[in-house]
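Could you join me in thinking about how sequence relates to backbone shape in a protein? Would you write everything just below, so we can both look at the same thing?
***
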Amino acid sequence: MRRDVFQAIADPTRREILNMIATQSLNLNTVAGNFEISRPAISKHIKILMECGLINIKQQGRERICEARLEKLNEVAEWIEQYKVFWTSKLDALETFLAKDAEESITSQSPSTPIVKSAKIKTKSKNQ
């Protein structure tokens, strides 16, 4: 099965694995030791991350070391950028509309319109 980066980051455990190894390479046992799930489950997550190209496993002596390859996340960033441009333009248009609407409502108010102030009503207290 061919997997993509979006499938890999869809799972919170895989995102946490990426966070752990983003700044430093760790051996598989250290990675697995940080989770309360079985080692076979962690191995499945690691395999998916490898298939997507987000991590690399290197053999160092008897240990297998996980290294992050975060450049693959650029695919996600590029996809998000499309929607950022879309929503930025929509929000800018909304801001312009609201500013124009507010300006029109201020200028349309007649100066002869009386301003009503709220009156305070005195109430008798229980002590009187």
